[in-house]
Design goal:
By secondary structure, the chain is an alpha+beta fold. The protein contains two helices and ten strands.
Length: 118
């Protein structure tokens, strides 16, 4: 369900981490990822939904920051509460990786870059 083929990049595998909780995901990215590294995990608050966990750039003097982006799943459609919908997680991630100016952190209206699946 999570593998899709892209004509230019070959198969895309969703970086799904079903066994990691929020703190484990954050620790993993802070230790192993560069800015733009991300993974997907199931949402604990909303069963059936997911969270994209992203290592972000410096913000207000902090070295690196982790941002959690809610990924809603409803009736076979995935979205990030930003209006655009996708038939699967792979297509959603590929879109936002190809269009880094389209994903914004809601409370600060800053761009979030998805660069490296972990």
């Amino acid at each position: 369900m999570f593998k899709r083929r892209s004509s230019s990049t070959g198969p895309f595998k969703v970086p799904m981490h079903r066994t990691k909780n929020g703190p484990e995901s954050e620790k993993f990215l802070l230790k192993n990822g560069k800015v733009g590294a991300f993974l997907v995990r199931p949402s604990k608050q909303t069963p059936g939904d997911f969270t994209i966990v992203v290592k972000d750039k410096k913000i207000k003097g902090q070295e690196n920051q982790i941002i959690n982006v809610k990924l809603r799943h409803d009736s076979g459609i995935y979205d990030l509460y930003q209006g655009r919908t996708f038939p699967d997680i792979a297509k959603l991630l590929q879109y936002y990786m190809a269009h880094p100016d389209k994903l914004h952190e809601a409370s600060k209206n800053e761009t979030i870059s998805l660069k490296t699946p972990m």
